[in-house]
Amino acid sequence: MSKPQQGNRPKYKKGQPNQRPATTAASGVVPAREQPAPRTPDRPGRVLTLDPLAPLICRSGRPFDDQAGPDGARFPPPSTVAGCVRTAWARENGAPLGPDLMQMAVAGPLLARPDGDNGFRLFAPKPADALYFGSGAGARCVRAVPAAFEPGCGADLPEGLLPVQLPAPEEGKPGSGPDWWAWDDLLRFREGERKPPDHAQLTEGGWSPPPGDQRTHVRIERTTQAAASGQLFQTMGLDFAPPEGLAADPLSGLRLLVRCAEPLSPTLTHLGGERRLAELRPVADAAWPQPTAGWLERIGQLGGLSLTLLTPALFSGGYRPGWLSGDLTGCPPSSPGVQLRLRAAALGRWQPHSGWNLAAQRPRAGRKLIPAGATWWFELIGQPSVDDLEQLWLTSLYDCLQDRLDGFGLALPAAWTPPVAPSVTHASA
């Protein structure tokens, strides 16, 4: 085993799969840090952070054999985090790992970085209607908007559904930018400003996943406990540790922020594949984002809203939620008092997702997830109350109850002004 680095946080060097021995959750001892981390409540809490102590391995369910390479580095899906939190709660309370445990609601994960004694800087996935163009000093972020086609143009969209398009032609090729935005940048983007955030500002405050942490492993024979000849495989992990230049800064590491229906105490737990360790700690309830003053009232005033995914989702209706009827109207499961009419949608490419069913001891069915950042625009039908709109704040849009309990489909509502005439010209056959 390689000699661990000095300091409190295990540093897993590239190409060194051996892990530093750590205190177990049963001991009740949490590794100390070189400098104090943000203060946490002395008692168990429902808002929690998960600090990965090693690169996370979250597979998508693709075939895993000698003919297939490793999955790419993947941000942990909500079901993985929900399973981690539920298992930690069951061990703490002596509860059985059974179907009843699946009914515990877990929201998240969101991405956060400690900022001061009690606060966190939050990050959100780049919205699908934000596009990057250019490079270097000419790099820019452009907002795509729902708008009717020009005269003579059309598509096979459902009646009343608007295309999401650029307001004006853009010169140059698509560019690159951060995959995750600072929370404040996303709020400003959704507040309806004419100009989207500056590209340099987004880059400075945002985050993009680093290259995957690839490691080579060998199969161990059960009978001899020795390496099987020629049986090698690789894994790819997502490293949340700060870059080497920031290793001395305890506030530079990224965490996963989740909210659980039941309170938990600080502990060490396993997160993702290969039993990688993560430190679970309760934090102040104020760490979970709340709507700013007037945010929800503005939705009612403008008569429309957008819903941007903060975690991946899957709908029985494909690109649209299954709770929408054939005329694209319906009420979200979390807010039956808000009736909506779908006007536009912007989505990225689907993501594969599967897993292992521990109860049935078999693989779960593969599914196509709508990636986080996807956005839908709705027109309000009627005038819902602020209390009804508040039920939409960071709640799940999912059709399936179990998926909502797992944290899939969390969405950020924001005010939007729908066009006056919902007309779309369709192309002739």
Structure notes:
- The protein has 429 residues and is of the alpha+beta class.
- The protein has a domain at 295-415: Immunoglobulin-like, CATH 2.60.40.
- It is built from six helices and 22 strands.
- A seven-stranded antiparallel β-sheet has the order 8-3-2-11-1-13-12.
- A hairpin with a 6-residue loop joins strand 4 and strand 5.
- The radius of gyration is 23 Å and the shape is globular.
- Residues 1-39, 245-251 and 422-429 have low confidence and may be disordered.
Quick take:
By secondary structure, the chain is an alpha+beta fold.
Radius of gyration: 23 Å
Count the DSSP helices.
6
- Mind describing the biggest β-sheet? 7 strands, antiparallel
CATH architecture of one domain: Sandwich
Which secondary-structure class do the elements indicate? Answer: alpha+beta
Which structural traits does this protein have?
about 425 residues; alpha+beta; Immunoglobulin-like; seven-stranded antiparallel β-sheet; five-stranded antiparallel β-sheet; disordered N terminus
